[in-house]
Amino acid sequence: MKKWLLALGLLGGLALAQGKITVWTHFGGPELDWLKKQAATFEKTSGTKVEVVEVPFGDIKQKFILGAPQGQAADLVVTVPHDWLGEMAQAGVLEPMDKYVTKGYLGDLQEVGVEAFTFGGKLFGLPAYAESVALIYNKKYVKEPPKTWEEFLALAQKLTTGSTFGFLYNIGDPYFNFGFFKAYGVEGVFGKDAKGNLDPGKLLLQGEAAEKALGFIRDLRFKYRLVPEGVDYGVADSAFKDGAAAMIINGPWALGDYKKAKVDFGIAPFPTPPGAKNPWGPFLGVQGVVVNAYSKNKTAAVNFAKTLVSGQAQVSFNQAGGRIPVSKSAVKSLEKDPVVAGFSKVFPLGTPMPNIPEMGKVWGPWGNAINLAIQKADSNLKKIVEDMVSEIKKAIGR
């Protein structure tokens, strides 16, 4: 009897040590199936039970921020966009990951991904996959992507015939236009302080570089006559999907529809615009796994997170849903996939979207400035930029 009780006690202690972790995820369909399979494998190898709970994407951030201190949030979230990081880290609900990972481990993750999940000098999550816009072209019209602005312009104008468009994109949206701002010298929205952290008091989105970028965007409408008035995301996307546009700036989220429409497409960086000082480089959005700072089983949560972003796991994740991994070894394994290969050439050119809360105050004034610039061929770009800067600084209290 005593031996039986002792054995039972040992088993109970083992179960307590192994514990249980809860995962919140916005995944659905094949990606949710992938996550559940990863959880089942982790349970077998670690002895830690993993409960996967579906939470709507739009609810995750606030639910986690409010629930974590009360013990009412998951041990880890799969996944969050990196531009949530500042708000979540400032709320104190994210576990810093630096002490759990080595430089060698991080070496398999693309540098821009690690940068995206770094806030206040600390790593607050493990990047898993990324997305950005790129030049997507219909191979029916474009056999090889243009490598120079001159090649691009000649091709785009030749293919703008009245029944087809050579090039369209969501011209009024800052996200789709950042690559042009970067090309003309706007290295990012905010500068960095002495410690390398983004500083909302150092606004880079201004001056002559911003004016040149707005001037180029305006020229796409009035000088080069490529993007007519009234073109937004829906118009450009539909035209490309219907085979009426030869080239578009868009992201991986659109590719499923293009495949269904049987568009034979390719992916490439946008050529450097005329007179630009840098190559075109888009905003990079990175999604990754974060761990609850209040978790009672942090080690198991971190270990599971690390398995999810490993190269091998990211290959199977890509095969489940088509997301583009930031794991270098996964990209190497998927090098024959044209989508992964195409966007992997674009990602190193990109700049992670600012992950500080002040970025939320930038989008509105920035979008207004772009739309004012493209209203007429002689818009006052200097005044538009000055007004935009004034609005942004007022909004963020600077």
TrEMBL record:
InterPro entries found in the cross-reference section: Maltose/Cyclodextrin-bd, SBP
Entries under CDD domains matching the protein: PBP2_Maltose_binding_like
Top-level taxon of origin: Bacteria
Signal peptide location: 1-17
GO cellular component, one term: ATP-binding cassette (ABC) transporter complex, substrate-binding subunit-containing
Keywords (A to Z) from UniProt: Signal, Sugar transport, Transport
MF (Gene Ontology): carbohydrate transmembrane transporter activity; maltose binding
Biological process annotations from GO: maltodextrin transmembrane transport; maltose transport
UniProt record similarity statement: Belongs to the bacterial solute-binding protein 1 family.
Name of this chain's protein: Sugar ABC transporter substrate-binding protein
